[in-house]
Amino acid sequence: MAVIALISGYEIYMKYLHADNNIASNFKFYFFSNLYSTLIASLATAPLILYHFYIFSPYTIFANMLAVPLTSFIIMPAAIISLILMPFHLEKYSLKLMGQGINYVIQIADYTTNFKYAACYFGHIESIALLIYIFGFLWLCLWQSSWRFYAFIPIIISIILMLTTKKPQLIISPDNFAVAINKAGVLYVDKTANKFNTEYWTSWFGQEEIKRYDNKNENLFFKNLILVYNNPKCYDGYIIINLSKFPLSCRHNKVVNKKDFYQAGAHIFFEDGSYKNQK
């Protein structure tokens, strides 16, 4: 999508950015072309990054303004020179120069990650929001006439859907039957949750930090859900999540038993009583 965006934006790029035959103009052209291409690529791929990784780095443009020149003028030339010199066993100093350039890029990354709001934890977004965005994006990039600007309608709709994606009340994993609970926007994770689940759920909820709680295996009651550890029985009007060792079946209630987690993987439960599995 970044490539499509850069190709589509080339007409704007050539209309407003051009270089004259002098050093200052060429430097200005390089600076703004780098800024423009980084901005276009970052904006085009941001929803995809959010969908898969739940996190976005707003300082990408700043970091690239420093890292790309290092890559273009030091790292890549040094790599090519090293390849040429290798048959003569003279590549030592060019490889050292390339390594120093890579170290500078790593230092730039470390420096920008220490900025305030260097990472924005966005959380899970629905697939339909991403599909609508992709549709609008392709419409904007591929359509040639003035109709292309109507693509902003589905793009804006997709952004609204992303911002209003509802967060679940509970996430339960079949691994030790660890539980994550959303209480007023704060995520509480069972101490039995492994490192992978803890980090994944933290990103999934769009939070930088979580709170741990000690699961005492006590029954927990929510608005439309009941998490049962002991003495399973039917409760009218609730979705029953039965984590006891005894299977439960109710005539008037939807019940999720332990075997359902083994068969379908982790389950996500929402406040309104709806739920889905992550397989």
Q: Compute the gyration radius: what is it?
A: 26 Å
Low-confidence stretches: none
Q: What do the pLDDT scores average to? A: 85
Proportion of beta-strand residues:
5-15%
Shape label: elongated
Order the strands across the largest sheet as they lie in space.
6-5-4-3-11-12
Q: How far is it from the N-terminal to the C-terminal residue, by CA? A: 26 Å
Q: Which structural category do the helix and sheet elements fall into?
A: alpha/beta
Question: Order of helices and strands, N to C?
Answer: HHHEHHEHHEEEHEEEEEHEE
What does the largest sheet look like?
Answer: 6 strands, mixed
Number of strands: 12
Structure characterization notes:
- The two termini are 26 Å apart.
- It is elongated, with a radius of gyration of 26 Å.
- It contains 9 helices and 12 strands.
- The chain has helices at residues 2-8, 10-16, 23-53, 60-85, 92-113, 127-142, 152-163, 195-204, 258-264, and strands at residues 55-56, 120-121, 170-172, 179-183, 186-190, 211-213, 220-221, 225-228, 239-242, 255-256, 267-269, 275-277.
- The chain is an alpha/beta fold.
- The longest helix has 31 residues, at 23-53.
- The strands form 3 sheets. It has a 6-stranded mixed sheet, with helices on one face. The protein has a 4-stranded mixed sheet with strand order 7-8-9-10.
- A hairpin with a 3-residue loop joins β7 (220-221) and β8 (225-228).
